Amino acid sequence: MSTDFTPIFLFLAIAVGTGLSMLVLSALLGPRKVTTVKQMPYESGMDPIGDARQRFDVRFYLVAIAFLLFDVELLYLYPWAVSQWSADPALAAATGAAGSAVAGVPPIFRAMVFWEILVFVAILTAAFAYAWKKGVFEWR
User: How many CB atoms neighbour CB 86 within 10 A?
Assistant: First the structure.
């Protein structure tokens, strides 16, 4: 068996072991008393009384969309932050990798990419300020 897959198998073994240990510990240490109140459905901090197809206030959806927008922002910032400095020749020499084998933003384009990301963050900050001014984050 190749040692290239050892970390993957180790990760899977730890994940399965953690899941099984949580299952066993919750069965051994968890509460066992079954009551009608514990068996009653519970939804978002409220007892489910009335029709399940009632209308929700639009603020629920506005907050959810705002969360998704700012969450998606991180999808762009993390890869940029990793790749922005990974093509450093000093880093390549320290890790023993060849200069052409190290992925990332080439040093000549780092300033341009940095300013593009700053414009992206500025647009998101302006959108956040606009949403805040419009009262999207106020819960009435």
Answer: 14
Structural domains in the chain? 3-134 (1.20.58)
* Helix intervals (H) in 30-139: 36-39, 58-84, 89-95, 110-134
Output the CA angle 125-130-134, nearest 5 degrees.
150
Angle between helices 110-134 and 58-84 (to 10 degrees): 170
- The tens digit of pLDDT for each residue in 71-85 reads 888 887 877 777 776
Q: Tell me how far apart the alpha carbons of residues 138 and 58 are, in angstroms, rounded to a whole number.
A: 12
pTM above 0.70, yes or no: no
Quick check: 134 and 66 in contact, CB under 8 A?
no
Interior angle at CA 72, CA 66 and CA 78, nearest 5? 140
